[in-house]
Amino acid sequence: MRILITGGAGFIGSALVRHTLLNTDHHVLNLDKLTYAGNLESLSPVEHLPRYKFLQADIADSTAVSLALAEFQPDAIMHLAAESHVDRSIDGPAAFIQTNIVGTYALLEATRAYWMALPEERKQSFRFHHISTDEVYGDLHGVDDLFTETTPYAPSSPYSASKAASDHLVRAWHRTYGLPVLLTNCSNNYGPYHFPEKLIPLVILNALEGKPLPVYGDGSQVRDWLFVEDHARALLKVVTEGQVGETYNIGGHNEQKNIDVVRAICGLLEELAPNKPSGLARYEDLITFVKDRPGHDQRYAIDASKIEHELGWTPEETFASGLRKTVQWYLDNLEWCRHVQDGSYQRERLGASA
Ligand SMILES: NC(=O)c1ccc[n+]([C@@H]2O[C@H](COP(=O)([O-])OP(=O)(O)OC[C@H]3O[C@@H](n4cnc5c(N)ncnc54)[C@H](O)[C@@H]3O)[C@@H](O)[C@H]2O)c1
Fold first, then answer.
1. Phi and psi (nearest 5°) for 150?
2. CA angle centred on 29, ends 111 and 62, rounded to 5°
3. What pLDDT was estimated at residue 165?
4. pTM of the model
5. How many domains does the chain have?
6. What is the pLDDT of residue 350?
7. In whole angstroms, what is the distance from residue 125 CA to residue 347 CA?
8. Which helix (H) or strand (E) holds 54?
9. How far is ligand 1, taken at its centre, from the CA of residue 122, in Å?
10. How does pLDDT run across 215-260, given as a tens digit for each residue?
């Protein structure tokens, strides 16, 4: 297959690009604007492969996208490009409206024009796979409740509202124009190459430097964590075997309170990085509770039984095994982290696009 992946320089997108190129014969065009979240260094394991191409472009730039479609001739588009950080969406929602809603609309229209002109057989097999989040479903209050594919949308943040809007657009393009779409809504991902502003890498890197480990509110919020490489496997399964027009929830069966995640990281660091910053008795002593995020959802949890039963996907990692791999990866790749933290990954990107 020839797969155009949008947002392939981001956290999940780069995992998907690496997984696809290292485990299949598919060709990949990675179309990414390279915002602050895009990092070409995350693609170093595959960038030399002739089956891999990179194009710096904005999904909202219809001319650039149409040209890329005409030249690359994809059999499928996997759409991950997005503004994705909830705190940033609270501070500045405009970029979220522009990329997640307007950008997805522009991408859908460029795709529709391309798809309409395909020969019948390729038109039938073409797929547009939209990658979304469980945050569109809002908050769960009952301890046993789970998000299913039919849970009504009730997004809480500008981020989740913009993703919900993009999901509606994708479904409408299927119902109205017949575009062969698939949707997936996934829980919180974690793993290697995660941008250091997100909870798990932030805690690892702050702990190593003896800095406070910030925990929102009392840390009782529950998230369902999925190892990013399990997500990448699920996405490839859906794009190749999923039923057109269907939605699949993807989750890890790993519900954890934020405070327990932070404590688990501290425990792993005691074992894997025992030489602590001077004067520090235990990494846990760095935990600092900070004012809660406005509109903070209490609990997310996914019912992933549909993708398990219909497509035979289950996660390979438990939270314990995935977190250990993640902590070890950050310890082994501090240079990748340093390039993000000192901004040099962006200077390299300017070189790459010149
Ligand atoms: N991170 C999670 O836990 C999680 C969970 C479920 C779903 N998702 C969804 O998965 C997708 C990827 O998430 P992520 O965590 O990898 O995000 P990310 O922020 O790490 O990466 C986003 C990528 O999109 C690119 N991008 C942003 N705006 C663009 C534009 N206008 N045109 C082209 N490229 C653009 C960025 O440069 C970056 O490479 C998103 O759609 C997100 O909503 C994320």
1. -105, 5
2. 35
3. 98
4. 0.95
5. 1
6. 52
7. 40
8. strand 52-56
9. 28
10. 999 999 888 999 999 999 999 999 999 999 999 999 988 999 999 9
Q: Is the pLDDT of residue 351 over 60?
A: no
DSSP class of residue 198? S
Q: Would you state the structure tokens that stand for residue 270, as one six-digit string?
A: 């005691």
Residue-number span of the structural domain to which 196 is assigned: 2-351
Amino acid at 265: I
How many Cβ atoms are within 10 Å of 148's Cβ, its own excluded? Answer: 14
Q: What is the 3-state secondary structure (H, E, C) of 281-342?
A: CCHHHHEEEECCCCCCCCECCECCHHHHHHHCCCCCCCHHHHHHHHHHHHHHCHHHHHHHHC
Question: Is there a contact between 3 and 222 (Cβ–Cβ < 8 Å)?
Answer: no
Structure tokens belonging to residue 336: 């990748």
Rg from Cα positions in the chain: 20
Q: Residue 140: its pLDDT value, please?
A: 84
Using a 6 Å cutoff on CB, does residue 30 contact ligand 1? no
142-147 CB contacts, 8 Å cutoff, 24+ apart: 143/299, 145/299, 145/301, 146/301, 146/302, 146/303, 147/185, 147/249, 147/300, 147/301, 147/302, 147/303
Reading the block at residue 80, the tokens are: 């991950």
Catalytic residue numbers read 134-135, 159
Q: Express each pLDDT in 101-143 by its tens digit.
A: 999 999 999 999 999 999 999 999 999 999 999 999 998 877 7
73: domain CATH number is 3.40.50.720
Q: CA–CA distance from 217 to each of 192, 221, 293, 318, 351 (Å)? A: 27, 9, 8, 26, 42
Distance 8 CA to ligand 1 centre (A): 8
- Of 14, 16, 35, the one to substitute when testing ligand 1's pocket (max ligand atoms within 8 A of C-beta) is 35
Region 323-333 average pLDDT: 97
Give residue 87 CA to ligand 1 midpoint distance, Å: 14
